[in-house]
């Protein structure tokens, strides 16, 4: 009668004979996973009195141990079955579900809280600085030319002003003709400016304040309308000492 084992990883099957005459016995292990095992179905595994099972290819397998000495040979067949896992055993328990839920909810909640705090701080700062949130439009910019102290040092005041692209006339559209004069603060040049007659930074800033933040194409066309102007105008340009050359100050049109 075949002996039956339940498969567990690391199970050791022993077929050693306690007493044999003569005592020198050779053991050989074979395996078979077909329902009916013929002589050709048995596959050689190893030569040893014991066999350790670390894995099993099929749910039900047969192992044959053949013992042989000078007096003769004998064999024993051992059946090893692997129990089918129950679906209820593999299903997550309530504690596992709670643990998984916590691992998802806690990081998501913390991330959402950080986003809300940062967004609230940004909106608070915008409200404090500009008097409104201006989420879909640009906040109003002060007219810095109006707040300059004409009796003070203009050069020092201009250097403290923030950079606003709308107030900067492109350097490449100005060509210097000749020097008109020089003084303590810089040199005055006679120059020709292309399109400066259509350069109206205040109007561009008003359009920017009234326009939508995401209407890029239309706003760009209006703000850069002077780019398409080909009119050449003679101007006097003062290049102030210590300034980068493209930060020229447009004084007046001749």
From TrEMBL:
Keywords: Receptor. It comes from the Eukaryota. The keyword Electron transport does not apply. The keyword ATP-binding does not apply. This is Vascular endothelial growth factor receptor 2-like.
């Amino acid at each position: 009668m075949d002996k039956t084992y339940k498969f567990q990883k690391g199970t050791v099957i022993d077929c050693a004979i306690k007493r044999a005459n003569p005592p020198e016995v050779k053991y050989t292990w074979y395996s078979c996973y077909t329902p009916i095992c013929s002589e050709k179905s048995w596959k050689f595994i190893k030569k040893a009195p014991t066999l350790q099972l670390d894995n099993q290819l099929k749910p039900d397998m047969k192992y044959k141990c053949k013992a042989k000495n000078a007096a003769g040979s004998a064999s024993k067949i051992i059946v090893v079955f692997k129990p089918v896992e129950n679906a209820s055993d593999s299903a997550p328990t309530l504690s596992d579900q709670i643990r998984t839920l916590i691992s998802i909810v806690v990081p998501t909640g913390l991330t959402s809280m950080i986003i809300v705090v940062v967004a609230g701080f940004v909106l608070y700062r915008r409200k404090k600085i500009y008097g409104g949130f201006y989420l879909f439009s640009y906040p109003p910019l002060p007219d810095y030319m109006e707040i300059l102290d004409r009796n003070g040092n203009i050069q020092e005041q201009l250097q403290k002003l923030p950079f606003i692209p709308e107030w900067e006339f492109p350097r490449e559209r100005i060509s210097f003709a000749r020097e008109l004069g020089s003084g303590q603060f810089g040199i005055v040049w006679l120059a020709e400016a292309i399109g400066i007659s259509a350069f109206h930074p205040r109007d561009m800033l008003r359009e920017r304040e009234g326009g939508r933040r995401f209407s890029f194409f239309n706003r760009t066309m209006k703000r850069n309308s002077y780019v398409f102007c080909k009119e050449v105008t003679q101007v006097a340009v003062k290049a102030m000492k210590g300034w980068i050359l493209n930060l020229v100050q447009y004084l007046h049109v001749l």
